[in-house]
Amino acid sequence: MSTTDPDCLFCKIASGEVPAEIVRDGERVLAFRDINPQAPTHVLVIPREHHPDAASAAGAGTGLVDEVVREAHSIAEDEGVASTGYRMVFNTGSGAGQTVFHLHCHLLGGRGLEWPPG
């Protein structure tokens, strides 16, 4: 598998080709604010390496999904939402609302998050 996809929006953000409001910039993981926030805290956490979804990244067995989740939790702490609660969402497939086919975790917090979600 290629580590990047030249047609992928999130690969372009990770490379700096497309601007984003960066929250965290790590060696393997990048986090930035969603351009259409659904909560006061809405950050996307992505790996720099291209995987179409969480299942494919988990299947690679490199610990990348673990790293994305750890980073999301750390950002929730920094954003002040860890103690009150936050949601991590991984959409997989267009039927689930995935529009960019690059693994990404939506970190949402700062307001009540009802259940079921949608």
UniProtKB/TrEMBL annotation:
Ranges spanned by the short sequence motif Histidine triad motif, renumbered to the chain? 102-106
Record InterPro entries: Histidine_triad_HIT, HIT-like, HIT-like_sf
Q: Which PROSITE patterns match?
A: HIT_2
Q: Which superkingdom, per the lineage?
A: Bacteria
Short name of one Pfam family? HIT
Residue ranges annotated for the HIT domain, each copy included: 9-118
State the protein's name.
Histidine triad nucleotide-binding protein
Organism equals: Streptomonospora arabica
Which taxonomic lineage is given here? Answer: Bacteria, Bacillati, Actinomycetota, Actinomycetes, Streptosporangiales
